[in-house]
Amino acid sequence: MANDIDGAPVARHGRGRRPADEVRADVLHTVGDLLLRRGLTGLTFECVARESGVSKTTLYKWWPSLGALALDGYFHGVQDTLAFPDTGDVRADVTTQLHQFLGLMTTTPAGRLLAELIGRSQTDPDLAREYRRLYSSGRRQLAADRFRIAQRAGQIRSEIDVRVVIDQLWGAMYHRLLVPDEPVNADFVDALIENVFAGITPARP
Amino acid sequence: MANDIDGAPVARHGRGRRPADEVRADVLHTVGDLLLRRGLTGLTFECVARESGVSKTTLYKWWPSLGALALDGYFHGVQDTLAFPDTGDVRADVTTQLHQFLGLMTTTPAGRLLAELIGRSQTDPDLAREYRRLYSSGRRQLAADRFRIAQRAGQIRSEIDVRVVIDQLWGAMYHRLLVPDEPVNADFVDALIENVFAGITPARP
């Protein structure tokens, strides 16, 4: 219940129309929640309409496909868990964030969900485009923003293309997720960070 | 035409049975060649039987599925291109090999082929197992062998887990292949190598 400028309560719920942004945020919250509990299995427009109280017509208007709805919901569902802290120490912050990502991949259906979406997108150009538009490009941008702060602070060499570092940390995790020859675990995360921050060659004399 | 111990020519072709290993190698060569020219499209047991002159019964005996035949053929088809040189300088050798891999991915159907196989394997556990058994685990082993030589030569720190470095070079390339937010090109390859060999932080004073 919000107050208008005269201090009188303004009914936002139950009576009249709720603002579209608010309804949309509620739907995304519902979808993110469903995905993190149950994965893609059983996600349908019907069940999202039922759980969110929003008509299927409205859902179709905002999200033309189930893939788009799932990706948008997932992006919003993980944004708090995968936020980049800024304590002033980029290596510590990236370590925190990658361990959060590891937890999401290993203790929720998120790993399976992402693997299936990337898998299907290899033969479905529409899904591939939506995956990049609604999920991966946004996630890359957030990581790049944190690395550029670190470059300005002199913690990462200025000539480094931070977009490449993203593939060597998160991309390496996706690689083991998609082709599981080796496990995705805390030792792996720590080794990824050590290698790319410190380099694998002996210290210069 | 080989010679037996008395120096008399021994007919291996045309008359009698050829050794199974030789027939098998011929089939793999045929399949590797077909895949690098045309990709997975149109690859069938019928067409391999026709091009190699080996009966479908024999092909089915050796390769229970088209996926297994394709993966085995592809592994053999790329082994010369993707061989690891050993000039004594691991960074130079890895640079050579990664540029060969880049060429394969960008100028042949190999990139699309690998992306489709990894994609399908997300929802096909048999294919996933065959992919690892017949392709990716063998490729990882070859890279690890070259890095371990470098560790013994003091060119890579002895405490580095070289399996992780593999995900940060080849895995990072697969990541951009599968989720093409950013391009796979020569600059990317060179940056991957620079980052992981030298580290992204400023040189220690």
UniProtKB/TrEMBL annotation, chains A, B:
Residues 21-81 form the HTH tetR-type domain. Pfam families: TetR_C_11. GO terms for molecular function: DNA-binding transcription factor activity; transcription cis-regulatory region binding. InterPro entries: Homeodomain-like_sf (IPR009057), HTH-type_TetR-like_transc_reg (IPR050109), HTH_TetR (IPR001647), Tet_transcr_reg_TetR-rel_C_sf (IPR036271), TetR_C (IPR011075). The keyword Transcription regulation applies. Gene3D superfamilies: Homeodomain-like, Tetracycline Repressor, domain 2. SUPFAM superfamilies: Homeodomain-like, Tetracyclin repressor-like, C-terminal domain. Keywords: DNA-binding, Transcription, Transcription regulation. Residues 44-63 bind DNA. This is DNA-binding transcriptional regulator, AcrR family. The lineage of its organism: Bacteria, Bacillati, Actinomycetota, Actinomycetes, Mycobacteriales.
